[in-house]
Amino acid sequence: MESLSTPDTAQDSEERAPRSPAATQHPHRLQGALFQPIGDEGRAELVERRLVDAITRGHLRAGERLPSESDLSRSLGVAPVTVREALLALRGRGLVVTKRGRNGGSFVADHADPLSFAREAVRTSSRLALRDLGAHYAAITGACVRLAARRADPTEAQQIRRRMERLDDLDAEMQRRLLDDVQIELVALSQSARLTREQMKLQAELSPYLRLVAHDHEDRRRQGTHLVAVIDAVEAADAEAAGERTELMVAETIDALIQLQSRIG
Question: CATH for 31-112, among 1.10.10.10, 3.90.1150.10, 3.90.180.10, 2.170.150.20?
């Protein structure tokens, strides 16, 4: 795996290293961030927290069927009884319902709306906490795109730009998913699997908030314009421009969340 840092004095030929699997594979946020093994810490409350995060952040949507208990236990590296205990707690909280019969299983409750969770989180958070959320996201993502600008081949950035050209042809939900995926794919061009996994987690955390402040087409297009500018900077190997544009995009998002907080508080 690539080192997390590359000396500024490295030659261009070294910085533009061959594409790694992280740069070529389409990221899958749910498998990458949600279903990584828990291991020895495999307590029911940790499984419960993983699933709650997936529901409240919109990766498991209302009405969606959860993997089976055996599949969850294998993915998370815990005993089936631990998964069963976590699902029982989720049913008690009204986030999951269980249906019997041939097409039965555990499903996300119809009223489990990630936007409602995000709106409540904004309402109850302090401005300092929201600023801290933005600072964390900007620090990690900004560093990642700077590294991508140093390492990526220009043709890789061009491929991502072609995906962005589809934005206006998609419905609102697919636009949001595309914007999230493009951000992750840009980070994947850093050729660091560790950083890409971290970005998947950050994107999962921020995505519901982005939905709150980008509720109409023009807002999503503005976010898309920021991302295209980052793509341009990565293609041009302009690390500082890539990082600065990312930080501007995050600052605008946090300012919009604070304005929203003043209206719903």
Answer: 1.10.10.10
